[in-house]
Specification:
Elements lengths: L5 H10 L6 H19 L33 H5 L5 E2 L2 E2 L7
Antiparallel strand pairs: 1-2
Amino acid sequence: MSHVSEDKVKQLADMLRIAVTEEEATRYTEHLNKMVDYVKCLDEVDTDGVEPMTHAIELKNVMRDDEPKQWITQEQALKNAPDHEDGQFRVPAILD
């Protein structure tokens, strides 16, 4: 990784439409370069055989498998309906 220049900070601020003073640009450049230097230390870590991950902790799906099963019939669903017609529930109109 290369170091961040003050010009790059100003260019980025301009693209984001953020006003930065010269003092702020200098301070942000210093902070960003410290972050880049810190991340560079990760290059020294041996990662052979380490699986890439998308999250810091393993996430598991807690939902059941989606398997087909017998459900109620149309007649059973409609038997307690106050009003039905042609195999469908009838409800009051809500639009004029």
